[in-house]
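Hello everyone,

My group is preparing for a crystallization screen and wants a predicted model to guide construct design. The compound we'll soak is adenosine-5'-triphosphate. Before spending weeks at the bench, it would help to have a computed complex in hand. I've included the protein sequence and the ligand's SMILES below. Output in C-alpha cell form would be ideal because that's what our pipeline reads.
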Amino acid sequence: MKKESQKSGLARLLEIAGRRKALLFLSGALVILHAILALTPYFIVFYILNALLSGENASQVIDLLAWALGAVALSFALMYASGMASHIAAFNILYELRCKIAEKLGNVPMGYVNNKSSGSLKKILADDVERIETFIAHGIPDTVKAVALPVICLIFLFVIDWRLALVSFIPLLGVIIFVPSTMGTEESKKAMEKYHNSLEDMNAGIVEFVRAMPVMKIFGQSATAFTKYSGTVYDFQEHVNKWTQISAPLWGMLMSFLNNALLPVLALGVYLYFSAGLTLSVFFLFLVLGVGYIRPIFALVSLSTQLVIIDHGVKRMDEILFDMDELDSGSDSLPQNFSLKFDNVSFAYTEDNFVLKNVSFDVPQGSLTALVGPSGSGKTTAGQLVVRFYDVNAGSISLGGVNIKSLPVEKLMENVGFVFQDNMMFYQSIFDNIRMGAKKSLAEVIAAAKIARCHDFIMQLPNQYETRFGDKGVHLSGGEQQRIQLARVILKDAPVLILDEATAFSDPENEHLIMDACRELMQNKTVIIIAHRLSTITEAEQVVVLNQGKVACKGTHIELLASCPLYHKMWNAHTRAQEFDIKKCV
Ligand SMILES: Nc1ncnc2c1ncn2[C@@H]1O[C@H](COP(=O)(O)OP(=O)(O)OP(=O)(O)O)[C@@H](O)[C@H]1O
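Reply:
Good plan to model first. Here are the C-alpha cells for the complex, ready for your pipeline.
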C-alpha cells in the first residue's frame, strides 16, 4: 500500500526533518533573538538622536553606544549559533535522506531502477537532495529572519508613531497581494514544471552522451548529431526562456515597487514634520526603518521561488519513497531444496506486450539447464525473473517448492548467484570488487580468483589485489572483467546459478578459461545457463529453446537435434559460424 505523504512545501520539509525538527526550531528561536538584537542599534541610534536633540550630556550617549556595540556582538554570536544548529540538522537530514532513498532503491525490483535513466536518478540523489540540505541550512533560518525582522520592526514603529507606521505597511501589503496572485498562477507553475522536466531530460541526455562518446568518435559524429543530447539542451533553453519571459516582467514590477517604497513615508513624514510637530529623530527613524524592513522580504520572495524548485525535487524523491512498490516477501517460508520451476510464467515489461508467454520448465536440483533461442526471444528476461529483477505477471517461479515471491528477499539473494551479460566493476580495489561487501579474507578471495582463472593477471597488476580498478593505467579486458565476476559468484557459493552469456566478451583463449572456471563453479549446483554459443551447452541435462517468448522445444542436445527444427537450424548456423573463414568472403 502507498504511504504517500499528503504534505508539500515547507510542511513536507519539516516532515522530512523528522527528529531533527527540534534543532531547526532552536535555530529559528536563535534567529528571532538575533533579529531583535540586530534592530537594537537602530533603536539606540533613535534614542541617541533624541538625547542629542534634547541636549543630554556626552556620557549618556557613550553608554548607549556601548549598549549598541554589545547588541551587535551578541547578535552575531546568536546568528552563528543558529547557523550551527541548522547546518547540523541539515547535514544529518541529508545523510538520512540519501540512506532512505538508497535503501528504498535496494528494495524495489531492480528492473524498475534500471529502467529509470541514470541522469534522473543522479538529479534526485545528488541535486534535489542537496538543494533540500541548502534550504534547510540557510533557507529556514533566512525565512524566520525575513518574517521576524519586519514584524518586530513594525511593532516598534507602531509604538513610536502609528500614522507613519501605517504608511510604511503599504509596500508590505502590496507584496502580500501581488506575489501570490502573479507568481502562483497556473501558467507560472506549469512553466516551472516544464523547466524541471527538461532539466531532468537534459541530465539524462548528458549522461548518455558521455557514455556514447567513444562510438560517436568512431563514427565521426558531433555533439549536435547526437540528437538526444542536442534535443534536450535545446528544450531546456526553450523552457528557461519561456519561464524567464513569464517571470521577468513580474519581478521587474515588484522590484521597482519595493525600491520606491520610501516615497509614501517621505511624503507623510514631511507633512507631519511641518504641520503636526513630528520630531526629527522620529522622522529619521522612519526613513531608515520604515522602508529598511522591506529588505528581508526581498529574500522571502526569492526563498519562495527556491521553495517551489525544492518542492519539485521533493515530489520526485517522494515518487521513489512512496510510489515504487517494494518487493514483498509474503511469508517466512524456506526452500525445501534447490530445484527451480517455471510454471506457466508470463511477463510483460509494458502493458500487454508479453515477452514471455506461458513458459514452463523444471530445473532439478544439481542439474544444468541451458536457455537458448534467437535474439530477443526472452532468455535474459527469464533469468532476471528468477532474481526478481521484475515480478511475473502470471504463473509462478518456485525455488525448492516455494514461490519466490513468498521467500524472504535476502534468502532468495543468498541462494542465487547471477553472472550478468554486462560487467559491473566498481572504483575500488580488486579485493573489494571480488568480495562485494562480504566478510571474506584475502585467502578466500585468492582461492576464488584462482578457480575463476583470474589470479595470474591480478598478480601482474601494480598493487595486485589492492589495485584500484579504474585508476590511471589499470585496465582489464572484457574477458578479464568477466572472470572477476565469476570469482565473485564462486566466492558467494550460492546453490543456484544463473549464468547469462558468461563468455560474451571472450576471445577463444578467454572462452576456454571462462568455461573451465564455469565447470568448476557449476559442480553440484542448480544452473540455468543462457548461451548463444551452442557448443558450450551440449552437455547440459536439458536445453530449453525459447522462440518469441514461448517454449518451442525442450530436451537434451542430441534429442533436440533430432526433433526440434529451430534448434537444428540454430546448431547449423552455429557450426557454420565456427568454420567461418574471412578469406573465403573476399
Ligand atoms: N528493460 C526492458 N524494457 C522493455 N523491453 C525490454 C527490456 N529488456 C528487454 N526488453 C524486450 O524484451 C524482449 C526479450 O528481451 P531479452 O533480452 O530477454 O531477450 P534475449 O533472448 O535475452 O535476447 P539476446 O539473446 O539478444 O540477449 C525483447 O523484445 C526486448 O526488446
